[in-house]
Amino acid sequence: MAGLQAVGATDAEASSGLLILCATVGAASIVFALLYRIPISIAWSTPGAALLVAAGQNHANFAGAVGAFIVCGALIVLCGLWPALGRLMTSIPKPIASAMLAGILFPICLAPVTAVFDHPLLALPIILAWLIMLRLAPRWAVPAAMLVAAVVIAVSAGGAWLQRAELAPQLTFVAPVFDPAVIVSLGLPLFIVTMAGQNVPGFVVMATFGYDTPARPVLVGTGLASIGGAFFGGHAINLAAITAAIMASPEADPDKSKRWIATLSAGALYLVLGLGAGVATALVAASPPILIIAVAGLAVVGALVTSISGALEEPPHRIAAIATFLVTASGLTIAAIGSAFWGLVVGAIIMVWLGWRRRADREEPSATPARDA
To answer: How many separate domains does the chain show?
Structure first.
C-alpha cells in the first residue's frame, strides 16, 4: 500500500492494486499447485514494493508507473522465453544485486526511528510489539506489529476511517503511460530486484528441498499475470523465496509429495484476503504516512540484514558493493533516472575497474632488475 501510494496511486487505485495482487498471486499459486503437484509458491514482489517506496519522491504520476510495471512484466516473460536473457539476469554479481537491494531497503528501515520522534504515542506501541514477539515468537513479529498498527490507527482516527472504507472490493482500470525515463528509473530496477531478490532465490530454495521447478512456465506465467495486473494497479508477482522456504520444507508436511497442498491452501487464502483491500486502504489513508512506512520498515529488516550480508561476503568486491549501496541509498536522480539504476552502474564500473587492476597486478612481471653475478 505504501509503495503504490508513493508512486502516485489514489486510494481507489491502491486498493485496486492490492486486490489484483492478491487475486493474481492466489490464482497463480492454485494453478501451479494443481498442474505440477509441487509447492511452487507465488508472491508479490516485496523488494519491488520497497523500491516503489524509495522511488516515490521522483514519480508522482501513477499512469507512468503502471507503464513501468507492464515493461517489468514483459521482461520477466522474455526471461522465460529467451533463456540467454534469464542467464544474463542470474549472472548479475551477487554483491552488486544485494547491495542495490540493501540501498533500496535502508531508507525504509530508518522510518521506524523517524516515526518514534514524529509520532511517539503511535509508533512506540508498534515497535514494542515487534520487539516482544521477535523475542518470543519471531515468525509472528511482523504480523503482531501490523495488528497493533491497525488498532493504533483505528483508535487515533476515531470512526472517520470507516466512512472511507469500501467494504466491497473494486478494481480500478489505469491507462498506462510509457515514459522512457520512468521505465529506465523504475521499470528496469523493478525487474532487476524482482528477478535478483525473488525469482532467482526462489529457484535456489526449491532446488535446496529437492524440487525441479519448471522455469519457463513460472516466469512466463507470472510475467503475463504481472502485465494483466498492472492495468489495475499491481506492480509485479513472482516466484516466492521466503514463503517457498516454508512451504517446500518439512514444516508444510513430512511427506515431500504432499507439500503442494500448502501452496494450494495459500492461494485460496490470498483470494479471501484480497476482499479486505478496501478496509486496508482506509486504514492506510487514516494514518500518518511515516507510520505506514515504519511498519513496512519493520517488515523488511530481515531482508536488509540478508542483503547486507550478501553484499559484503566476498572481500574482493566489498568496495564495489559499498559504492552501489551508497549511491542507491542516496536517492539521487540524474536525467530523471533514479538512484537504483545508477547504483548498479557505479558498482559495475568499480567492480570491473578493480578486477582489471588486480588482474594486471598479477600479470605484471617483476620490476626488480636482474644483476650480473
So the answer is: 1
- Cα distance between residue 264 and residue 197, in whole Å: 23
Beta strands in the chain (DSSP E): 42-44, 237-239
Helix (H, G, I), strand (E, B) or coil at 239: strand
Q: How far apart are CA 373 and CA 150, in angstroms?
A: 85
| Local structure of residue 37 (DSSP, 8 states) | -
By CB atoms closer than 10 A (0-12, 13-18, 19+), residue 23 is buried
Q: 247 pLDDT exceeds 90?
A: no
Residue closest to 52 by CA, chosen among 240, 310, 296: 296
Its pTM stands at 0.70
Residue 368 lies in a domain: no
- 372 lies in a domain? no
Within 8 A by CB and 6+ apart from 276, the residues are none
Please check whether residue 312 lies inside any domain of the structure. yes
pLDDT, mean of residues 289-297: 84
The three cell numbers locating residue 51:
523500491
- Is residue 131 classed as helix, strand or coil in its secondary structure? helix
Mean pLDDT of 244-264: 84
Helix (H, G, I), strand (E, B) or coil at 6: helix
- DSSP class of residue 199? I
User: In which domain, by residue range, is 18 found?
Assistant: 2-362
Give the tens place of pLDDT for each residue, 300-312: 787 788 788 888 9
Q: Do the Cβ atoms of 52 and 62 come closer than 8 Å? A: no
Q: Which residues contact 113 (CB under 8 A, 6 or more apart)?
A: none
**Cα–Cα distance for residue pair 19/275, rounded to 1 Å:** 7
In a domain, 55, yes or no: yes
100 or 42, higher pLDDT: 42
